[in-house]
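User: Second chain of the day. Same drill as before.
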Amino acid sequence: SSSFSRRASSAVKSTSSFNGIYTFALSVTTSTASGISKLSATSPLLPDASAAFALHRPEEAIRMTELLVKHSRIPVTVKTRILSRENPEQTISFLKRLEATGISALTLHGRIAKEFYSGEPAREIISAVREALQIPLIANGGIMCKADYRIMRKESGCSRVMLARGAMGNPWLFEELTNPEFRPPTVEELAEEIRL
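Assistant: Same format as last time:
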């Protein structure tokens, strides 16, 4: 195996008692692929590796995921992006291979790499992937408010979604989605929240 794979294997073995869930982030950017961005949302195991890895080097990504599943004592999940807006089979083929590594769940962002965060997420691609996989699929991308959440749930068919930038700009979004009596914070409450 490559030195990169050996480093990942060693890192997972040394931290496999971590009480949580590893999320293996296979997010893709337009930069040259050289590694993976993180293996845990709270404790990156390979902090010097870039994000553009999985879809440019799928064979190595599959092998890395196999190593993580093999050596981790806790569930491993993967987060990645769709490969194409036009052809769901490209995304499905790759994600079925990831599923076969033994991961517990998969989060799919509905935009291709070069789009970053622009445009509507391809919820129909997420839906096609959901129908093809046996493991839980978590829909991600463009959920900035309750209306976006409802649209994503309806059009992707996913019972789970992941919030990202929407919650960074509006941390009350979690309460908005779970509390039927939610009311937006007042100007005074916002000022108090951000007061130094």
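The two ends are 50 Å apart (CA to CA).

User: Great, on to the next one.
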